[in-house]
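Table S2 (text version). Query chain:
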Amino acid sequence: QVQLVESGGGSVPAGDSLRLSCAASGRSFSPYAMGWFRQAPGKEREFVAAISRSGLTHYADSVKGRFTISRDNAGNMGYLQMNSLKPEDTAVYYCALRSPGYGIVTTAGEYAYWGQGTQVTVSS
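Corresponding structure-token output:
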């Protein structure tokens, strides 16, 4: 089992940037594909971004061009760089891991390991 801890969230004005980190422990990070999801109050958890072991990335339309997902397998770390933040980006952000398969998976239920989440609040 892999344990995940997110960090880097905070409260920022619209237009600012944040970088979220996801630290993995317990097992090697490298065999897994990684995804970021977010959940706003009263809404379902939604897909944000994912990256395969080979570096293939995919983004939700709502964040494409603003967010960048990356990973450091040697350091067992994942990242989500968030630029040009908007109030609608406000949510708890979660990192998650899954065994790699074919292509990118955007469904939360397909991810086996989850962190506790980190709050991102973007004010107008």
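Notes on Table S2: The chain has a mean pLDDT of 94. Residues 40 and 91 are 4 Å apart (CA to CA).
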